[in-house]
Design goal:
Layout (H helix, E strand, L loop, with lengths): L2 H29 L2 H8 L1 H4 L10 H11 L4 E6 L8 E7 L2 E7 L6 E6 L4 H11 L3 H26 L3 H5 L10 H15 L1 H24 L17 H11 L3 E7 L8 E7 L11 E5 L6 E5 L6 H14 L5 H10 L2 H26 L16 H6 L4
């Protein structure tokens, strides 16, 4: 493959998608700790005095229905003990709110517009640039371009990979050009696998989001019309644990329409750490409390397992604090590649103009001049 042609593809892919790669890289590194950041901000109400009384979702749901009767309700964090607040998210087509409820009485202690929360604001910037469907499409295209840029970069640097990984290439931090080139090559090589994983999983997530919008034909979902819940949520949680040993329900989606079921999502003790924590669910009838359906990822084909890996692999929600720190550190790689790639391009263009001026001889204005073809060849040697 022609080296100059490959470099041109790599350069233009990086330049066009660069600003979006920069945004996704920086926001992604922050979102690794989104739960920790949000819990720190709301720490005055999240952590409650320890109590011997049981956690009550029934009381929490009753409180929500009294204040927000026609909303799509999801309990996003259900504590095992009454020492933490119950967290809920309620949605309507044009609105979303986050609630923190007392774990025993169910009283609403804090009711926040999602736009005022740090994590949701960052998530919208990461996935749609705060531009709705158009932003999602732009970032999907940028993600695809980033994957192609990684592939062309791998091909371009393939002979240097072993030397970089074994530290046999001496860094040359003499000036801005050499420093940018060294960082671009070293970061690109060391973070190659991570970048491919996060780029591919990010594209898959964005593709699902975009296809969901397309399939809805741009029509907003119907207004929530939840049915009366006559069965006990607390009993359902206990029944699910007893019926399926090893199942830990921690996310509850209430029915938003009269024909919907109550769904308890959670993790099984047989799941791998990189399985999505809500890959399994059990459904119950909101009136009778009888089980209507159950889904466990362990019984599903390989493709379902791979899809379950997507979200944890993209955001680092697996393996604990060490993995999150590594994700935060390597998550800066796309931003570094974007910045250093832009600097390399600017320095190359500047040097090209300088060489053109230096090689332009004084001549008779009536005498034709032969054009030199050696400028690009000279510059190609300074790229890496």
């Amino acid at each position: 493959m022609n080296k100059r042609f490959l470099l041109s593809i790599h350069k233009w892919l990086g330049l066009i998608a660069g600003i979006f790669i920069l945004i996704m890289g920086l926001t992604g590194s922050i979102l690794v700790f989104d739960d920790e950041i949000e819990h720190f901000i709301q720490r005055d109400i999240i952590y409650q005095p320890d109590s011997d009384q049981p956690v009550s979702l029934d009381n929490a749901y009753a409180s929500i229905m009294r204040k927000h009767p026609n909303w799509d309700v999801r309990f996003t964090a259900v504590p095992d003990k009454a020492d933490r607040a119950i967290e809920a998210e309620i949605r309507r087509p044009d609105d979303r709110r986050y609630l923190y409820l007392h774990p025993v009485t169910g009283d609403i202690m804090r009711d926040l517009d999602s736009e005022s929360t740090f994590s949701y604001w960052m998530l919208k910037l990461h996935y749609q640039l705060h531009s709705g469907f158009a932003g999602e499409v732009i970032l999907l295209i940028a993600g695809l371009m980033f994957i192609c840029s990684l592939i062309t970069g791998f091909w371009f640097y393939r002979k240097a990979i072993r030397k970089v990984l074994t530290f046999k290439i001496r860094p040359r931090f003499r000036n801005l050009q050499s420093t940018s080139s060294e960082l671009h090559r070293s970061v690109g090589v060391w973070a190659l696998i991570f970048n491919l994983i996060t780029a591919i999983t990010g594209v898959v997530i964005l593709l699902i989001i975009v296809l969901t919008h397309v399939q809805s034909d741009g029509e907003p979902p119907p207004l929530p019309d939840p049915p009366a819940v006559e069965a006990s949520l607390d009993n359902m949680m206990e029944t699910a644990r007893e019926s399926y040993p090893g199942f830990d329900p921690s996310y509850v989606r209430m029915p938003a329409q009269p024909d919907r079921q109550i769904t308890l999502y959670g993790h099984m003790d047989t799941d791998l750490p990189i399985h999505y924590e809500f890959s399994n669910y059990v459904q119950y009838d909101p009136r009778t409390g009888m089980e209507s359906n159950a889904f466990f990822v362990r019984n599903q084909p390989v493709t379902t397992h791979l899809l379950s890996f997507t979200y944890p692999l993209h955001f680092g929600d697996w393996g604990g604090l060490t993995i999150k720190i590594l994700y935060c550190f390597f998550g800066l790689a796309p931003a570094i590649l974007s910045i250093t790639g832009f600097i390399i391009w600017r320095q190359r263009e500047r040097k090209k103009r300088q060489l053109q001026r230096q090689r332009r001889p004084a001549r008779d204005p009536f005498q034709p001049q032969e054009r030199s073809n050696s400028i690009d060849e000279t510059l190609d040697e300074t790229v890496v």
